Amino acid sequence: MLREWARGGLVGLDAALVDVVAVAAVHQRSALLIGRHGSGKTTLAANAAKLAGGAFVHYDAVHDDLISVAGVPSPRDLAEGRLRFAEHDRTIWNKSVVLIDELTRAPPETSNLWLSIVAERCLHGRQLPLRVLFAAANPDSYANALELDPALVDRMAYVVRLPEPGALSLEVLEAQARANLASPPPAGPRDLPDARGRLLGVLALHAARLAAMQAVRAQRDRLARNPVVVARVAEWAALVTREILRVTSKYVSPRTYALFLPNALLDFWAYLQCEHLGGVREASRLALSFAVGQKLDLPSEVIAAALEAGRPALRAIEGALHVRDAEAVVRGLAEGTLPERVAVLCTLLARHDDPSSPVRDAIALGVVDLAARCLADLDRELPRCLDPDNSPDPIAAAIALCNGGSPAARLHEVLSKPASMDARLRRVAEDLSVVLTMARVRIASDRALRCPSSPNGRPSAVAPRVGVP
Questions:
Q1: What letter does residue 94 receive in the DSSP assignment?
Q2: In the chain, which end has fewer C-beta atoms inside a 10 angstrom radius, N or C?
Q3: How far is CA 401 from the centre of its chain?
Q4: Residue ranges of the domains in the chain?
Q5: Which CATH number describes the domain made up of 2-173?
Q6: SS3 category, 57
Q7: How far, CA to CA in Å, does 35 sit from each of 45, 101, 380?
Q8: In whole angstroms, what is the distance from residue 155 CA to residue 333 CA?
Q9: Measured at the alpha carbon of residue 295, what is the angle toward residues 299 and 143, in degrees to the nearest 5?
Q10: Mind listing the pLDDT tens digit for each residue in 150-181?
Q11: 161, containing H or E segment
Q12: pTM higher than 0.70
């Protein structure tokens, strides 16, 4: 959902590029997008800036100047020895979300203005209320383009380098051309009901966007409050940083490896979880790529080596989460009625489908206890069903009990599915099968002994009950 809002109408961009700007918007980080003219960097940054919400302004570093950004100095304040500006609708003093386009093409007389905003978040010594800052720049190879200051780039949480057209597949190129051939909506008067419907649609979309962003932020807060997760994320950041420093001579600042990198892992992890796009391993790849790799322009083999170095910490994180999940499994299989607990088991088996997962150990232990309780329930309910005083058709009721009407039969059905079959659960399913077969034999023999001439198990007029003299 958030990915599509950040993408807007752009076609052909890799999902990871869209995800990083969406993450920056949701978690209120700064991001620098670098790409050739017409590559979509400005549109992508503008989409993400609007997704972030708040007072927004879009500056063009080539044409906007001090008056556009700060306003006109107030003569009255200057006379009193203070530097204050007469503000207008585009001044930066009350803006929380800012997009600066063409950053590397700013004329010399205003370049320091933009550098102060990007690098220091202040202007003329006055701190700015920025929450989210996006900047777009052309590559250094462009004529008249300033070289990006490494200190400025280092202050950006994420750096995104958009691909060259030559790196795109034929399918993507065709999709881009097709998207731009679409007919525009017809112009003309629109009636009030249509306008009202569109307004309600916009309000509903806005509410859904806010709810999605709040869910991601809440999940991020939960991860940050987990001491085990925090310790392992710090270990991961240390491992990957040590590997990068070992294989490359590029300078990695403490701001990048100790501030941006570990926070990037939590940012991406929460986003991917809530959007159902991946887990901690995918989050580690995105965090390392955009918080360090593209910022320092590291080769892909360096990123791969660093990811491999950090795998022990990721496995520890997954193990800690498995312990938490296992505790939830034990609680889920021990609470509620037997049918409710069997339904919980179905959900758990679908969610944890890897037989080697540590959570499956907890499931197997819980299933053994659940099966014992289901069999005790069957042993108690079967005689009640076979009592003619409790049912107009006791044999049919007893057969239904064994064929799916009891928790034991339902549990056997669940455990007999191929997706559920590992050795431990197979043994439980076999035990249940034996007991259900014995129950069916008991039903058949009970019918034959008690009611030889009545198919429904009730005594006929000519056949006395067994045991009555």
A1: G
A2: C
A3: 42
A4: 2-173, 211-320, 336-450
A5: 3.40.50.300
A6: strand
A7: 12, 11, 72
A8: 49
A9: 95
A10: 888 898 999 999 877 666 778 777 877 877 77
A11: strand 158-161
A12: no
